[in-house]
Specification:
CATH topology: Jelly Rolls
Distance between the termini: 24 Å
Strand content: over 45%
Number of domains: 1
Structural class: mainly beta
Low-confidence stretches: none
Order of helices and strands: EEHEEEEEEEEEEEEE
Helix content: under 10%
CATH class: Mainly Beta
Number of helices: 1
Length: 222
């Protein structure tokens, strides 16, 4: 079973979009955007969904918390930080792009890392792509392909690991990227996110991102 006691959930309905707090999420919350009843986690974010402040696109996405529901934010030099997932993507919007995992920065619109699934109609498969900011104020770096030719409806794994020294490792489908984040991130409060952040906001209500997670684990080891 996936432990939902360390997350809250944003769904793309309402203004501002609704947050399902940790206790309610843990007790078995279910709607058309999210369902954990089968032991896996189902996420759906249509292109027509509402958007969080300063965001262009809709999301149905988990955000790290403590077990009492308080937001969990951390500084990377304080622990070994990792996010591991097993999932499949079953639907993408017309842009072909959805975000499936993030290292975000507290009270910022600029995440350190976005991990995207980018689908191509021509290949009928998608690439797993990392978008990294080396410093908090910088623009998003160029897209780095971690793994290629990942079909829809096929399970795959990813892991994001950020060490105390700032070494960042990203793996997907047994392919690995290792790099270093800038030291200016040291004092920034960070947190993991996972789910589906649909990178499109035009189209019919039937268009969007749909993902199912079969395993999801966050770890901070001192």
């Amino acid at each position: 079973m996936i432990d939902l006691a360390v997350w809250n959930l944003s769904i793309p309905v309402g203004s501002p979009p609704k947050t399902i707090e940790t206790p309610q999420l843990k007790s078995g919350y279910k709607d058309k955007y999210f369902d954990s009843g089968s032991g896996s986690l189902f996420f759906w974010a249509p292109v027509t969904g509402s958007k969080t402040a300063n965001a262009k696109y809709p999301r149905t996405e988990l955000r790290e918390t403590f077990k009492d529901g308080e937001l969990r934010n951390w500084k990377y030099p304080e622990a070994d930080n990792s996010l591991k997932a097993t999932l499949l993507v079953s639907k993408v919007p017309s842009s072909g792009k959805i975000v499936i995992g993030q290292i975000h920065a507290y009270e910022s619109t600029k995440p350190m890392l976005k991990l995207e699934y980018q689908y191509s109609d021509s290949s009928k498969a998608g690439n797993i792509v990392a978008k990294l900011r080396k410093t908090p104020g910088s623009s998003e770096g160029k897209s780095i392909i971690i793994a290629k030719n990942v079909p829809l409806n096929v399970k795959f794994k990813y892991e994001i690991h950020l060490s105390k020294s700032g070494a960042l490792g990203i793996s997907a489908r047994d392919q690995n990227l290792t790099t270093k984040v800038g030291s200016s991130w040291k004092n920034k409060l960070l947190y993991f996110k996972a789910g589906v952040y649909t990178q499109d906001n035009t189209g019919y209500t039937s268009e969007g991102g749909r993902v199912t997670f079969y395993a999801l684990k966050v770890r901070h080891a001192g």
